[in-house]
Design goal:
By secondary structure, the protein is mainly alpha-helical. It is built from 8 helices and 2 strands. The N and C termini lie far apart (48 Å). 23% of the residues are buried.
């Protein structure tokens, strides 16, 4: 039995996911599930009816995130996942719905159980960041000449 690659090293995750074609299939499955299962109606409502651009953005993001080509940046520029989703009221329920929908989509792919477990563990990190526990605010500090910007983290949730 072949040993799993070391996910997270180089493009091992990207390759294990089937490259761009495999990631596009995953994303299509993800959005198809989101669109057809009423459990995900809230997170589906955050996307336009024609979600081709959303699909493209997620597929391109995941390509780079998994160690492949940085397709998102090539087309859309740099991204901050929490900032892009800051306008959404993401609670634990929506975070868990997103992860649950992704888990269902992953289960429909020809991925190894270890890849699925790895991806779900890793995707939980940005999903939690989007949840809105912390807001990142940049502010100019006029009293600190050697430091032009200070990062403040403000707790938004108890």
């Amino acid at each position: 039995m072949a040993e799993d690659p070391q996910f997270g090293i180089g493009d091992a995750t990207f390759q294990a996911a089937g490259g761009e074609a495999g990631i596009c299939a995953l994303v299509d499955t993800f959005y198809d599930i989101m669109s057809s299962d009423l459990q995900y109606r809230t997170i589906r409502s955050w996307h336009p009816d024609d979600n081709r651009v959303s699909r493209d953005k997620l597929a391109r993001f995941l390509c780079g995130w998994m160690g492949g080509p940085r397709r998102y940046t090539e087309k859309y520029g740099p991204i901050s996942i929490p900032r892009v989703h800051a306008h959404l009221d993401v609670t634990e329920k929506e975070r868990d719905d997103w992860l649950g929908c992704m888990a269902k989509a992953l289960a429909k792919q020809a991925y190894s159980p270890s890849l699925i477990a790895y991806l779900l563990e890793q995707l939980a990190v940005p999903a939690e960041a989007v949840r809105g526990l912390w807001s990142v605010v940049w502010r100019r500090d006029p009293d600190t000449p050697h430091s032009s910007w200070i990062l403040f983290e403000l707790a938004l949730a108890p």
